[in-house]
Design brief:
Elements lengths: L3 H8 L4 H8 L3 H12 L5 H10 L4 H6 L1 H4 L6 H13 L3 H16 L4 H8 L8 H17 L27 H10 L2 H5 L13
Helix pairs in contact: 2-3, 7-8, 8-10
């Protein structure tokens, strides 16, 4: 019995409706896929198609086991999900995924879970978002007494950036954010405060 579709969907914080929308099918069809997989009657092509829609495949679904078993994001799954949301021009959701991944990192308790979480992700495709995810994870790792992996070392951005903020915020507002920004992120040119990194 396998539950790759359901486990991957839950790990990414996706509902049945989210996956149905990505596949262009009904929510009932997704429920049937998950039942078929659990009952070992699912077609391999259907399983692969569902996983591909979530940025996974059979090998990554199996590799993600330590954190996936607890339905938690890893740096890899967060980066893949963020890349998909950014491709859909949804910066707000990409930012929520980054923040949620930090919360999930805090739930990684065993050595295997921590190592699983910290394995290097594929590039998101935007240096700003790659730097945000890497720097925030390195910051949290240091706070837990964990040595951040090499992939989290990123150069500072060429220009200051306030994530998921359209247009040009007023300088007065930017000054307020700078004054209270997290030092590790500010050093990289990212304007975010401690409270901005907390799960709502």
């Amino acid at each position: 019995m396998s539950t790759h579709i359901r486990d991957t969907r839950k790990r990414l914080g996706m509902t049945i409706y989210d996956l149905a929308d990505r596949l262009g099918v009904t929510a009932g069809a997704i429920s049937q896929m998950e039942r078929s997989e659990r009952d070992e009657t699912i077609r391999m092509s259907t399983l692969k198609r569902a996983l591909k829609a979530m940025g996974a495949d059979l090998s990554t679904a199996a590799q993600d086991a330590p954190m996936a078993a607890r339905h938690l994001l890893t740096a890899r799954t967060a980066a893949a999900s963020m890349a998909r949301e950014l491709a859909a021009n949804d910066e707000d959701t990409a930012l929520r995924i980054a923040i949620q991944s930090l919360d999930h990192f805090r739930h990684a308790r065993t050595r295997a879970e921590i190592q699983d979480f910290l394995r290097a992700p594929r590039p998101i495709g935007d240096d700003r978002w790659d730097t945000l995810l890497a720097t925030a994870i390195a910051r949290d790792a240091k706070r837990r007494g964990i040595r951040p992996p090499a992939w989290t070392r990123k150069p500072a951005l060429p220009e200051e950036w306030l994530p998921a903020t359209p247009g040009h915020p007023a300088e007065r507002y930017l000054d307020m954010i700078r004054a209270t920004a997290e030092p590790e992120l500010l050093e990289k040119g990212i304007l975010m405060r401690e409270k901005d990194l907390a799960v709502a």
